[in-house]
Design brief:
Layout lengths: L1 H38 L6 E4 L7 H6 L6 E2 L2 E2 L8 E6 L2 H7 L13 E12 L3 E9 L2 E8 L9 E14 L5 E7 L1
Parallel strand pairs: 7-9
Antiparallel strand pairs: 1-8, 2-3, 4-5, 5-8, 6-7
Length: 180
């Protein structure tokens, strides 16, 4: 009988210890998730994809990118960057970049725009995969729509503009990654 009591006590301690261990593991996981989520911006950003027609002509001309075609010629001058990124924080900056007949409404008290332009060879749609802010640097990851092999989504190299409207943040730079 004494041995049975000892076995029961041992089993109850093992059960109690297992519960405590499970609670500690869950607390650790929740802490890690909370820390990760604190640096990842909630994905309520709006994306305006392939919007070159909204860009002012003089801005477009002044901000060409290497490898894109202009007037049937591919720009191969290596003094031009392969990509350009702009953070638009004010109405004045917005007006210098965009024509009046655009569809972007921004409250610059609360929001800002991230504008990314680069040479593209496809017109497939993009969606936001992830936006993360860390030490004043915003990282934007975009996914390109997948299509079946043989579907004609490829084209001559052109300068593509992607515009994201996000909550206003105190950032110094933006890094874009495009998964195609």
């Amino acid at each position: 009988m004494k041995i049975d009591m000892e076995k029961r006590k041992l089993k109850s301690w093992k059960f109690f210890g297992g519960i405590v261990l499970l609670i500690l593991a869950l607390a650790l996981i929740l802490t890690l998730v909370a820390v990760t989520l604190s640096s990842v911006i909630k994905n309520k950003a709006a994306i305006y994809d392939n919007e070159a027609e909204w860009i002012r002509e003089e801005f477009y001309e002044q901000n060409r990118v290497y490898g894109a075609m202009y007037d049937r010629e591919t720009l191969r001058d290596e003094s031009y960057p392969k990509t350009r990124t702009f953070i638009v924080r004010t109405q004045e900056e917005f007006d210098k970049m965009f024509i009046d007949e655009n569809h972007i409404e921004v409250d610059f008290e609360k929001e800002m725009l991230l504008v990314y332009t680069y040479k593209a060879t496809y017109t497939r749609k993009m969606k936001i995969k992830r936006i993360k802010e860390d030490n004043g640097i915003m990282e934007v990851e975009l996914d390109v729509e997948k299509v079946k092999l043989g579907v004609g989504a490829s084209c001559s190299p052109f300068q593509r503009y992607v515009v994201l409207k996000v909550d206003k943040k105190d950032i110094t730079s933006v890094e874009f990654t495009i998964n195609d």
